[in-house]
Amino acid sequence: MDEEVVTILSNYIRGRFVEHAGSEWMDVVEPATGVVFAKLPLSDSQDVGAAVEAAREAQPGWASLEIKERADWLDAIADSLEASFEEIAELESRDTGKPISLARNVDANRSVANFRFFAGLIREQESEAFEMDDATNYVVNKSVGVGALITPWNLPLYLLSWKVAPAIGMGNTVVCKPSELTPMTADLLMRVIDGVGLPAGVVNLVHGDGAGAGSPLVAHPEIDLISFTGGTSTGEKVAASAAPMFKKISLELGGKNSSIVFADCDMEKTVAGVVRSGFLNQGQVCLCGSRVLVESSVYDEFETKFVESVERMRIGDPSDDSTDLGALISKDHLQKVQGYVNLAIEEGGRVLTGGAPCLPSEFEGGNWMAPTVIAGLSPESRCSTEEIFGPVVTLHRFESEEEAVEIANGTRYGLAGSVWTSDIERGKRVSEAMETGMVWVNTWLHRDLRVPFGGVKDSGVGREGGKWSLGFFSEAMNICVKHD
Ligand code: NAD
Question: Which of helix, strand or coil describes residue 393?
Fold first, then answer.
């Protein structure tokens, strides 16, 4: 490896890029090739302490700005990010292994849109008042204080920008802790923030792993609010650490989402939609429909068409515009996904396609897995109920609407789902019976930034998105004024 191309990352604290206190580093590895292309500082509680202190000191001044001024800052960040659109897409594709087309259409687009959207939303916020016969109540949305924003590796800047924009828009200052596996676009965001001249200390960033940097950040007594997106087991630790200090907390966690296919669906559109839902970003989206429930009368037809469509996907060079599927995030994750395929076979499943690592010839050092479809498993099996978070979809039959709902609700998770039918009334009825935070009918991942986002059961606590984000990142205070 040519040393010249290795980027050395640093923390961003109080408006400066600074070295971490310790001396430990971690390699940032390109998932497609296994090549090390950056070094990440493994920060510790000392770095976390410095970042929280900077955020705390900057908070009163930042909160005292007019909403319009903060909205203008968000727009300035959006403009500057937009100017770096291609760089975002290239870094994200390289850092995560995802296809460049996806990094452009989803990651880069949404990261810019998040700042612009929340700038508009906070500008339009209306003050609420409640009249009584003898008094007027009015609601003031105050900032919460200092926020810890912790994000995973699957949609790095997309998710970080979705937290930073509403958090600072509502007058909080923040410390970001992006995933140690995908730090590159968080670094880019700090360069953008530095470039537009955002007041020092409003946004700080500490690189590092969960134990060294994430854990002391959530446990820090000066952190008032935590917005965490990641796995359910990490969420448990974050919640346990935050609870004794009554920190405001939002947890966006794992999912095991069902796509329910009824016999009256538009078969062609449904197969395309369910393939996209199962395999987008190599199945590494919390909302992916990884268990597909199909009405018995069309099961055989669906299975054949679904497998044909999966086999047509192009897997390979993430930087090629025509690639559909890239690499998995890490060797460990590839092993986990493979482990689940082996388990599915032990559990009595039949692998209809894929099932093994696949190595495009020029990417021998990378983490590649063929898109995999498994049939014949019980819907209660571990592979059908546990989050695999990879390119593995299980197919199941159902006989009635009631059975479909029962299977869909038969997991510990409750994040999302989709229903495919030409009977819209049934689509809505089945959606409402599902124990999830979101359901799509005849589509998937069709996102409007104004709508609530979040899960029930073990998929999370709280809602973000649109006005729900503004609510989470602020404290509503009521002032009751007695009339003369
Ligand atoms: P993860 O839980 O391993 O890590 C997420 C983040 O938490 C990382 O930044 C990590 O360093 C940090 N972390 C780890 N241990 C910590 C601790 N003890 N205290 C504080 N921070 C800690 O998750 P991941 O593997 O990066 O991401 C995949 C998971 O994220 C999947 O389960 C997926 O479903 C979930 N996810 C959920 C959503 C959603 O909106 N619900 C969105 C994307 C991903």
Answer: strand
